[in-house]
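We modelled the chain as a single entity of 248 amino acids. Its sequence is:
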Amino acid sequence: MLYAQLPWSPPTIWTGTKYDAELTAPIHVPGPQPSPLPEATLHGTPTGIVEARLLTPLNSATDGRGTPVVAVLTQPLLTADGKQVLFPEGARMTGLVTVSHPARWFGRNGQMRFTFRSIAREDAKPTIIHGQLAAAEAAPGTHAKLNEEGTAKSSSGPEKYLAPLALGVLATSAFDGDATSNPVHSGVDSNGLGFAARVAVMSSANAVLLRTFAVYAASKSIYFRWIARGHEIDFPKDSRVQILLNAR
């Protein structure tokens, strides 16, 4: 948190950062390869949970109801005993967006639901499925949550309430007559405006400057969390998802 407050910092790649690479040619893995599992004959509608990644980027601000969605399996769908393959890794699922509401003013966040209607092996006839979103890797900062129907909604998190409350208390304390006499007090009261603002307030010991920064920080927090548009729900391309396949 302190590192992020600095006015300048060198480019950083944090531990655990993930990358998605699109291969230009198949990778040959040396050594003995496991024998492939036999393919099973499908009877009825497939069920279970499948691991996949989205080939279609989705955003509640731009993709409305009826937008086509394509995903590809990253793990094979096996029979209940795990000895046969119903659909191999690489099989494609197709579907569409069924619910899409963009973010609106007064902190109302976007939401989206999409379902999958068919799955197919390469160069094979599609099979009808009933798939809904069970889990997803959304874009950072969206705080996505899923309900039982598979609707993804962006959440503002506890900061929506805690940040304005904390900054409001600090703004009130800035009107204390002794606030500017204590550099630490001044630095705390100017919170919400970064490292440079704190240095300016602590070095100047100016009551008007302190109060201006404190009120501005509280007002900005209230505006962006309660008045401005909320957060969109965003699923970038290659987002990892889990799809629940139902019988109907």
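As a brief sanity check on the tokenised model: The radius of gyration is 25 Å. The CA atoms of residues 37 and 83 lie 7 Å apart.
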